[in-house]
Known about the structure:
Nuclear Transport Factor 2, Chain: A
Amino acid sequence: xxxxxxxxxxxxxxxxxxxxxxxxxxxxxxxxxxxxxxxxxxxxxxxxxxxxxxxxxxxxxxxxxxxxxxxxxxxxxxxxxxxxxxxxxxxxxxxxxxxxxxxxxxxxxxxxxxxxxxxxxxxxxxxxx
Length: 129
């Protein structure tokens, strides 16, 4: 039988692609603060209250197996009018401990609130560092 040592199977730093994280949206501080507040409410509802979640989003189902801990990073790219493309990193907690999750979604302002749709559980393609 053929046997390879473990270090030969491990990727080097140069082989692992990394993504950059930048705020390309250039949203004002006031709008970013407002959208951050909405995003925190969205993920709190995602883990605690299905009725509220239905009122502020489409595409997420209640997930009581996890607890929303924090919004770590967020960028909001303006897409014309009151529409934004959000890219966020959040920390969640479950029975196994805490972990980071990444999401992309669309946010649209509706009267005095916001509504989120088109959720993807990934980061967008980025530039290799």
